[in-house]
Design brief:
Blueprint: H1 3-20, E1 29-35, E2 44-46, E3 63-68, E4 73-77, E5 83-84, E6 90-91, E7 115-119, E8 124-129, E9 138-143, E10 152-154, E11 167-170, E12 173-177, H2 180-184, H3 187-190, H4 205-213, E13 228-231, E14 235-240, E15 249-252, E16 255-260, E17 263-268, H5 270-287
Parallel strand pairs: 1-14
Antiparallel strand pairs: 1-3, 2-4, 4-7, 5-6, 7-8, 8-13, 9-10, 9-14, 11-12, 15-16, 16-17
Helix pairs in contact: 1-5
């Protein structure tokens, strides 16, 4: 089928669903992933069977909308500096899933990688972790949920302030920042052995630098009180390279729902929904 016909038919289908009043499952979670970076990134998801195979490319300002199955538990991260052939084989400078575009067989990206982690249930748990290091700024913003529903993430670019002993360089440029555990592999930095509990495993010089830059992200293994968040019945917007306070939108139950400095704001109406749906569908067609 011609590309423009595929997009047109997809838009017409969305409009038909909106007009008929069809509702999304109350138990599902809508994930909107946005690339606000200045370069192409390759988001990865594990488990990824319900997410386009767990790996795809997003150009700058491009987004994709995905539906998480009921009870899904997993992680999302970004890959940078990737080169893939037409068969989806290749390499990445950071966050790689072996040599594959799809991340179906990998539990997480190669370290260092900034991870967004989710456990979806009646009460969702979510966080952004830098325990395995940092490669891209990432923010997780719940929308239209109930409860605490705080924004998790790291919108500071730790590549510019990474201690030299932790820095990962490519062609003279810092592309990622390793964790102290990854570099030094000691019990103290890795929270293992006699340091394998929250009483003895305490913040270190390096984890404090991570925490100072990213107050709502995990900086070490037992950094729970200020790093893990809960929310009920929410959708999630995962944005790479943007401010945690930047307004974002998603579409749910016939409403375009946006976040802003004054809280949640629902913009109700079919044409608002169409305005959101058309660019998202075009983005999806480009990705596929």
């Amino acid at each position: 089928m011609a590309p423009h016909l595929k997009v047109l038919l997809s838009v017409l289908l969305i409009f038909a669903l909106i007009s008929s009043g069809a509702k999304l499952s109350e138990s599902a979670r809508i994930f909107t992933i946005i690339n606000d970076c200045k370069e192409i990134i390759w988001p990865a998801i594990f488990p990824g069977e319900n997410f386009n195979g767990g790996g795809f490319a997003l150009k700058p300002s491009q987004s994709i909308v995905l539906t998480a199955p009921v009870g899904w538990s997993g992680r999302i991260w970004g890959r940078s500096g990737c080169k893939f052939d037409k068969n989806g084989n290749g390499t990445c400078e950071t966050g790689s899933c072996g040599t594959s575009l799809k991340c179906g067989g990998e539990g997480s990206g190669a370290t260092p990688a900034s991870l967004a982690e989710f456990t979806l249930a009646n009460l969702d748990f979510y966080d952004v972790s830098l325990v395995d290091g940092f490669n891209l700024p990432i923010a997780v913003k719940p929308i239209n949920g109930k409860g605490n529903c705080s924004v998790a993430g790291c919108d500071s670019d730790l590549r510019s302030s990474c201690p030299s002993e932790l820095a990962v360089k490519m062609n003279g440029k810092v592309v990622a920042c390793r964790s102290a555990c990854d570099v030094f592999n000691t019990d103290e930095y890795c929270c293992k052995g006699v340091y394998g509990n929250p009483t003895t495993c305490r913040p270190t010089y390096y984890s404090k630098k991570f925490k100072q830059a990213c107050p709502t992200a995990y900086s070490y293994a037992y950094d729970d009180p200020t790093s893990i968040f809960t929310c009920s019945g929410t959708d999630y917007v995962i944005t790479f390279c943007s401010s945690r306070n930047q307004p974002v939108c998603t579409y749910h139950n016939n409403k375009l729902v946006c976040s802003g400095s004054s809280g949640l704001k629902s913009l109700i109406g079919k044409w608002w929904a169409m305005a959101l749906a058309i660019p998202l569908l075009i983005n999806l067609w480009i990705i596929y």
